[in-house]
Prior knowledge:
CATH topology of the largest domain: Rossmann fold
Strand content: 25-35%
Number of domains: 2
Shape: globular
CATH architecture of the largest domain: 3-Layer(aba) Sandwich
Order of helices and strands: EEEEEHEEHEHEHHEHE
Radius of gyration: 19 Å
Bound molecules: flavin-adenine dinucleotide
Structural class: alpha/beta
CATH superfamily of the largest domain: Nucleotide-binding domain of ferredoxin-NADP reductase (FNR) module
Low-confidence stretches: none
Mean pLDDT: 96
Helix content: 10-25%
Number of helices: 6
Amino acid sequence: MEDSKYNATVVGRIEMTPDLIILKVDVDEPRGDFEAGQYTVLGLYGYEERSPNSTEETVPSEDKKLIQRPYSIASSKHQKRQFEFYITQVKSGQLTPRLFNLNVGDRLYVSKRIVGTFKLADTPEGNDIVMIATGTGIAPYISFLRSYITNRPEQKMAVVQGAAEQWDLGYSSELTFLDEGFSNFFYIPTLTDANETWTGYEMWIEDMLEDGVIQKETGIHIDPEQTHFFLCGNPVMVENVTEILRESGYHRHTRKNPGSMHIEEFWS
Ligand SMILES: Cc1cc2nc3c(=O)[nH]c(=O)nc-3n(C[C@H](O)[C@H](O)[C@H](O)COP(=O)(O)OP(=O)(O)OC[C@H]3O[C@@H](n4cnc5c(N)ncnc54)[C@H](O)[C@@H]3O)c2cc1C
């Protein structure tokens, strides 16, 4: 018999690489209003099987305990019944190897709460937006764009996506399509370990900012009065970019002290 805490069904699973998936989930009960960029909690019991390419878990989980972790929503804020997540497998982790073992039709837990302060809605309409990501840090921006790209035609929006190799650039087809279709949107992917087929940038994101590449590609100014920055991904990249932006007068946005630099930390 199904455990009562499971309240959602996997309806899609796209394997980008053996350790990177897009998971689409239908919840039994539609959720209330939420904002693009927010996150919810996914859960599976400890008795669920781990994926074949995972390793032993660092911290053993208990069979009857619901393992719960937060995940950013990649789907549009207008979709309240079906949610999309972009997930990296931490091979020795508790939850992700179990999520990676799920197939279409399998059940899981999705929290009824959708929360978080990493929101495009908090930015003034006239300001430009730069979204910087590595890895699964792209997920909240996909929700931003799916929810808002047609609403803010006067505003420049840029996604700077850093990865090691080309196949790590999740959602690059969708981002390229938006770049070609919207004159106010700019997609700037960069690789640190590209092969010979790659014709784009091969720079660290930090260097792209310091050398003015982002400014030149988009015409966006690094000025906290005009441009909001969103940072999500590798903690070292986030720390380095934070330092660079601080030198230009940026401070981290919080509810109590609003600012133009928004940071989402997946892990530290
Ligand atoms: C607000 C928020 C949103 C998040 N959104 C996403 C998302 O959209 N996609 C996503 O893949 N993850 C996301 N995470 C991370 C996620 O919640 C889990 O921490 C992660 O999936 C690992 O869970 P686990 O149970 O497999 O590993 P655990 O058993 O919890 O072990 C995690 C340990 O592995 C290390 N680690 C190595 N790589 C990573 C990594 N990529 N992520 C986390 N820990 C890592 C950490 O140091 C940590 O101590 C988010 C986290 C937060 C706080």
